[in-house]
Amino acid sequence: MRISKLFTKTIKEEPKDEISVNAKLLIKGGFIQKEFAGVYDYLPLGLRVLRKIENIIREEMNSIGGQEVLMTSLQDPFVWQKTNRWSDKVVDNWFKTKLVNGKEVGIANTHEEPITAMLVNFVKSYKDLPIYVYQFQTKFRNELRAKSGILRVREFLMKDLYSFNRTEEDFKKFYELCAKSYMRIFKKVGIGDKTFRTIASGGSFTQGFTDEFQTISPSGEDIIYIDREKKIAINKEVFTDENLKKFGLNKAKLEEAKSIEVGNIFPLGFKYSEKIGLKIKDKDGKEKPVFMGSYGIGVGRLMGTVVEVSHDKDGIIWPETIAPYMVYLFQVENNKELKKITEKIYNDLEKKNIEVLYDDREDKTPGNKFTDCDLIGIPYRIVVSEKTVKNNTVEIKKRNEKKVNFIKINKIISYFK
Amino acid sequence: MRISKLFTKTIKEEPKDEISVNAKLLIKGGFIQKEFAGVYDYLPLGLRVLRKIENIIREEMNSIGGQEVLMTSLQDPFVWQKTNRWSDKVVDNWFKTKLVNGKEVGIANTHEEPITAMLVNFVKSYKDLPIYVYQFQTKFRNELRAKSGILRVREFLMKDLYSFNRTEEDFKKFYELCAKSYMRIFKKVGIGDKTFRTIASGGSFTQGFTDEFQTISPSGEDIIYIDREKKIAINKEVFTDENLKKFGLNKAKLEEAKSIEVGNIFPLGFKYSEKIGLKIKDKDGKEKPVFMGSYGIGVGRLMGTVVEVSHDKDGIIWPETIAPYMVYLFQVENNKELKKITEKIYNDLEKKNIEVLYDDREDKTPGNKFTDCDLIGIPYRIVVSEKTVKNNTVEIKKRNEKKVNFIKINKIISYFK
């Protein structure tokens, strides 16, 4: 992509109405734009990152047997009344609206109910199980206070998976499989070493415990206690001596940290299947409800978390796996010969499907370009200058390293392949 | 994909509450499911088709210079008040809702206003133009009567592109470029020969004419008059002697047909840019508003239209470009030797990225499988039977042809490559 064609521009001024690092950097870099509190548009650079994260999650969900669907946002109250989750007194973040005929409908904040109801049409026998259904779908949550940039918003893309098993035993196997898949996802997007599976309260979903995935960050809303040896943590909300004992954790060894919840997995048991009537005829010929679980990752929140944990004073430092482009390319001196060389490098890289953000702007100084490159946070910077091309080399620098290297022009492709 | 793993099942009974062909076939085949009138979920098979259509459109929009974004559904009334499109008396299909603090917000039915307002932040000079911004985004429209299956719904995925040009002349060039791109899209999804660029009323957008793209179908809501030689049509709503003369159409040569609107392109002129304040400093140093256009394709509606024009009494006939899978594979007799051969064909095809829906169900008769194959509408059917494997061949049949062919098993891959 030629930056001269990209309609967004980096912004020098700090956005006045943002406190969080992720919102400040993402807005300054031209990744997102605020419509109003907690409601952000994704601009071309931001959408590229979002889609890359989405694809990493999709591959993982497919690899553990997930089948992708797309449920609707508009929701008939009917099925939510069955589970007692329609009332604003029970679920306090509904957005509701009305059809022309006056009928009230909901705008979905989650999808346990409609997915369970959908499966009633397809599931009859134990032979139909297991089923794992997931989607990337926009959720709407009427948050009292949207905050922390794209970490807590009113409208966001979420990956939600729902598991349907014959027995609790089958469920537990899948639950562990999904937990491992989640850890692979967090590793792939570059926050693996800072993210811990965390024992947490079941909240409204279950009376037992649930698992959260928490990423250490000073901007997090949660407090967790980490056992680095065991690679697990426990949320402050369930941090009691009794629970520490239960999970074999030694208080003296635990390290306190602020953290961002990047994922959660819930045992749902029979709660939804019983109320909605999702039953199977089991091996013994008897009707039984289906054992369920739900598994969420906010795609935008994950993107925001990466920015929170991977940036410096100059800007974002995108991991290669989710960077909007792999290479930021520009020439120092504005002359035709150098332009010819730079254009050739651009075209060669593009031909090999190495994604390049080519800063071809002629009204910007090299200083502007160095600044934008660091702000946008592209993993590799390639600078073409008169001095280096004399030796048939260009300068190459990684965003997350200080050291500048030189590379023969005809070795650039093999460097990336 | 093994059908034994697919959670959806085909449904024998006609859905009682559906009149349209597309809804009947898509529901019976397990592509979609109705939540309530005008609100449909996409199940795994349906989502695959939807995504393939989306990708065809995306490639085309990128090829004409489109930059992809993702705007929000939640909308602050502010910018819509500027253009006088907030009031329900002006725009009668808004869904509106309220934040916790009582503030009323909209759920977007289109995005002229927010995209124009967004560009105010980035566009200063004529040098910043042209800009073409598009998205695939879920629109919500509070239709009085949802009807015709997925052709007219209350929630749907739409590709909407907005063009921003310095002059009307530049705009017109892009407008024609986009019109050609649209015709390529309709050709690629298999309805090119039935789709006509159609002169239509500007509606609320412009006092002049606009262009619609209409696909001939008995289930269409529109009536158009086609000039097959000129490959254009005129909508009944502007079918006057004066207009026929204006566009050089000869009444005697025109053919009347019912049709479905599958796309539209609108000149918007300065209407939005003036009211929202999207101005450029032009070459002459003067401030001028930007000349705009908008260009829509409903992705789900396009899918429904393909079903309307491409089906027979047995089911859907998907064009290869958007079929959920390329091959429907099954064995006739239930024995191990045949299973081994069938599994090998399945694995070989999958390895070569030829998408196969493998009907490995052992509790279904060959008759059931022939029926499901036709209903789901996969382009190629491969049947493995004892009789044919004796000659190292299998039966291969195209969904849109009557003739059954035989092919050597070791030639299957090269047949598809």
Description:
- Two copies of one chain form a homodimer.
- Chain A has two domains: 292 residues, BirA Bifunctional Protein, domain 2 (2-Layer Sandwich), CATH 3.30.930; 90 residues, Rossmann fold.
- In chain A, a hairpin with a 2-residue loop joins strand 17 and strand 18.
- The longest helix of chain A is centred in the middle third of the chain and has 21 residues.
- The mean pLDDT of chain A is 96.
- The two termini of chain A are 20 Å apart.
- The first copy, chain A, has 417 residues and is α+β, with helices and mostly antiparallel strands.
- Chain A is built from twelve helices and 23 strands.
- A five-stranded mixed beta barrel of chain A has the order 9-10-13-11-12.
- In chain A, helix 1 packs across helix 8 and helix 2 packs antiparallel against helix 5.
- At the A-B interface, strand 1, strand 2, helix 2, strand 3 and strand 4 of A face strand 1, strand 2, helix 2, strand 3 and strand 4 of B.
